[in-house]
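User: Please go through the entry that follows and flag anything odd:
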Amino acid sequence: MNNNTTQLSITPDSGTKKLSAGQRKFNGLVKKIEKQSQLLQAWETSTPLYIERWHSEFIPQLGKLHQQTLELVHVLDDLSERTKLSKTDRQTLTQGICAQAFSLIDSDSCNDEEEAILKALYNKHSGRDFDADEREEDELFMQGLQEMFGVELDDDIDMKSADDIAQKIYERQQTEQTAQQQKPGKKTARQLREEAEAAQASQSVREVYRKLASALHPDRETDPDERERKTVLMQRANHAYSERNLLELLHLQLEIEHIDADTLGTLSADRLKHYNQILTEQFNELRQEVIAQERIFKQQFNLDPFDEVTPQNLSGKYQYQLKMLLIDTEELSILCEELKDPKTLKAWLKAQREYQKAMNFDDDLFDDLPDIFFR
């Protein structure tokens, strides 16, 4: 989209001191659309750079953390064999080994050999079968998703892929919503009025496009340079019309001098209303694109879904994530050595129990809160 925001706006004529409500809304929507377009473009520019750094720096460091966590599981397993522990400490150690093994396998970072070793360690310390426990956990998770979102899900979902789960839920919700909308029934007066207004708005877009098509048709040009210029402009017009992009069509009219600020100022109230309806739809669609881009980015790179992430602060977010990853890896390395001392091991096991007790207390606290806090 061309950056003609300052030109594509309505200004008061010499005999009018202020704009009408519809004219002010038009100007405001143009600015909002331009802002969202620039933000979406910034995401599209910044994301590949982030991905490049992620693959060149972050993923190799993740591999080091994975190996260090594997070492911790083996250290804990060895300590369970040769360290005398109380029944409580041994139970805590067993739970830690099983939890770490389950987490490593579930992360999908293990090769086949590592996965087989971890499953054997899980089975050894839990007294159960890993595959059976994983199936049971997946079934419970599936039931929870179906109850939460009110949809029936098939068994072909990849339970390790958050993206696949979200996509399948979205598809099923869309299918059920479409089926509900297609149920026969008499339309209300409001529905009929909205359909009529939508048809009139579409007609307004069509009229702008037809005027452009008539002026830009390249076959009518004998000059090769002018024919090439109009071909490019016509391609832009075709794309804008297919996308129902009224703002781009108006920019094109401005570019070929079919309209100017004075022309926009003479638009009838009805035509301006239809334009504003289309521009509102454009703004909402762009806004949803930006929100989706941000949500997908957070999911892809394990960022806090409630954290504010913008193209401008991506570099800082990346540096923080990498710093935390390096710290976690170093702390695990130190822990593996320190746990070889029986006193340190017992103190660590006690700290693990206290941490779990605090987590359980938080869960119980929320469970006891009145329902009003969750409405």
